[in-house]
Amino acid sequence: MSAQVDRQTGLDALEQRLAEDLSLLELPAKPWVAERTHDGDRVRDVVVIGAGMCGLAVTAKLILTGINNVVAYDAAPAGLEGPWVTFARMETLRSPKTLHGPALGLPQLTFRAWFTAQWGSEAWESLDKIPKQQWMEYLVWYRNVLDLPVRNNVRMTGIAEAGDLIALDLEGAETGRVYTRHLVLATGRSGLGGFAVPDFLDGIDRRFWAHSADDIDFTALQGKRIAVIGAGASSMDNAATALESGAASVDLLIRRKEMPRINKMTGIGSQGVVHGMHQLPDAWKWKFVDYTAASQTPPPRSSTLRVSRHPNARFLLDCGIRAVTQEAENLLIETTQQPMRYDFLIAATGFKNDFSGRPEFAALAPHIRSWSDGRYRPEMGAPREDMLASPDLGPAFEFREKIPGACPMLAHIHCFNDAAMLTHGKVSGDIPAVSAGADRLVRGITASLFAEDVETHFASLIAYDIPELQGDEWLDSTPLLNKDNAL
């Protein structure tokens, strides 16, 4: 029997156990949301934008909860959702292999169960970190084994209010307008904005630079002098990829005087953090996020060694960038150390929450309340700009309005992505707590849908008339009681 057949046999057995577990738990729950139509078209109960890890977890949790009139749209082709095999250029995940990830409390749905079903327990014990390609393969299996309603190659281009519904304009494999009662934005690291690009790159021709999340042709960088901004994980991964692709040299331009070395939030990771952070007073939320932002998260040791093993790589500390000038065939970068010339620059500068920068959010952007709109107070600490731009979310990740009544549909639009971290903690972007985040979100949507249809549910209560007793199970003894009293 071939190894491929053995692997498939193991997967078949795992899928059978998963089906049995779901049956024992009576999952998915029976559908319970009343159907609605708009101009003759069926209205979705929930539309999820994004079918990466977070989008899959939310979609699965909704269906398991009995909210099955849902669909997830993703602009990427099937198998390329999220960053894992696109702009994530690390070799392995940094998260421990034992984390449950999007398994939603189902043991047979974990990466570990999927891995050991195919390669066995010994291979699991010898596995260090999860290769990123293998993680993507697991997510593809997760989607397929749960038969999740994902539609690929579909991009949302606009959001509009339609009475008490949300109208979405789509283009791609599905084109036109669809209506939904709730909308979940599972849009990953980019959140609600896009690339964070330093001002010194304004006006610089794009043939001389790229953001670390761009689709970079690294083969074109062979033999060239490369500068990479930053000392985070994406800086290391892009620098290593350039070096491995034959770059003549790679300099990491690091503003800090020392490399960050301690991963603070991982060090205090616990169920208390997962379930307690979002309940803290705002001042404590700000304090936690501000401290970890100031401390910074170090790049993984393996990613850093992947760069430093190349003799043509340099770590230039205390090397901030003052200005970038485009010359005929290269860039002149004025740094706090000295001016230097490079053929190409990679800006590993992260993402931002600039709602106004995305045309599909044009109808929402002016109305979304952020922490700068009164939730932040000076006594909390320094007014860090990226934190001030974070959306001020409700308990189910729903947006709040700057001016009450100005955009009611925001209460039904849920920000389940990296932008939610300040309000909700790290439960909507990273592997460790995504199941807890999905559970919190779906509980909120469930409560909202039930409350919105409360009259329908009460009418169903009144109309329900299937008897459990047939009337022949007892004898009314009251007449006998009266007879006995007459004696």
Helix and strand topology:
Elements: H1 3-24, E1 37-38, E2 41-42, E3 44-49, H2 53-64, E4 70-74, H3 111-126, H4 132-145, E5 150-152, E6 154-162, E7 165-172, E8 176-185, E9 194-195, E10 209-211, E11 225-229, H5 233-244, E12 249-253, H6 264-267, H7 271-276, H8 282-295, H9 301-308, E13 313-316, E14 321-326, E15 331-335, E16 339-342, E17 344-347, E18 351-352, H10 371-375, H11 385-388, E19 413-414, H12 421-424, H13 434-452, H14 454-463, H15 478-486
Helix pairs in contact: 1-3, 2-13, 5-9
Average of pLDDT = 95
Q: How many strand elements?
A: 19
The share of residues in extended strands comes to 15-25%
How would you sum up the major sheet? 7 strands, mixed
Helix content: 25-40%
Helix run count: 15
Low-pLDDT parts are: none
How far apart lie the N and C ends? 88 Å
> What is Rg?
27 Å
Instruction: Give the class from helix and strand content and strand pairing.
Output: alpha/beta
What general outline do the C-alpha atoms trace? Answer: globular
